[in-house]
Amino acid sequence: MSIKPIRDERDYKKAMKRIEAIWDAAPKTPESDELEILTALVEVYEEHHHVIYPPEPVDAILFRMDQMGLTRKELEPFIGSRGRVSEVLSHRRPMSLAMIRKLHKGLGIPADVLLAE
Questions:
Q1: 3-state DSSP call for residue 51?
Q2: Do 81 and 75 meet the contact criterion of CB atoms below 8 Å apart?
Q3: Is residue 20 part of a domain?
Q4: pTM value?
Q5: Which of 2, 3, 36, 43 has its CA 20 to 30 A from that of 67?
Q6: Ramachandran class of 28: left when φ > 0, alpha when ψ lies in -120 to 50, beta otherwise
Q7: How do residues 41-94 score in pLDDT, each as one tens digit?
Q8: Which region holds residue 29: left if phi is over 0, alpha if psi is between -120 and 50, else beta?
Q9: 4 lies in a domain?
Q10: Residues 68 and 111 in one domain
């Protein structure tokens, strides 16, 4: 087992390839130890180099609508009138705290995502 730090994308790809090769390693074997160490190194590398930013609030709403098969009309209980729904979804009107609370409670969209700027 020769484990080295992951410093760049080349090292990252090499580590990922090795992880794939030993993924089904039996517990308490040198390969399972190697797998545990490599996955920890990859996780640290990804946290610093492959940052995933939270979605923009309107994108989160649109995604949830798609997931749940909702129409704009079905957002009215959470946002308000048809015109207000249109304004929020087209970024012409910011969401109020009441809207955010209703969307969070009714659709399960994380509040921190809805509060993001």
A1: coil
A2: no
A3: yes
A4: 0.62
A5: 43
A6: left
A7: 999 999 999 888 889 999 999 999 999 999 999 999 999 999 999 999 999 999
A8: beta
A9: no
A10: yes
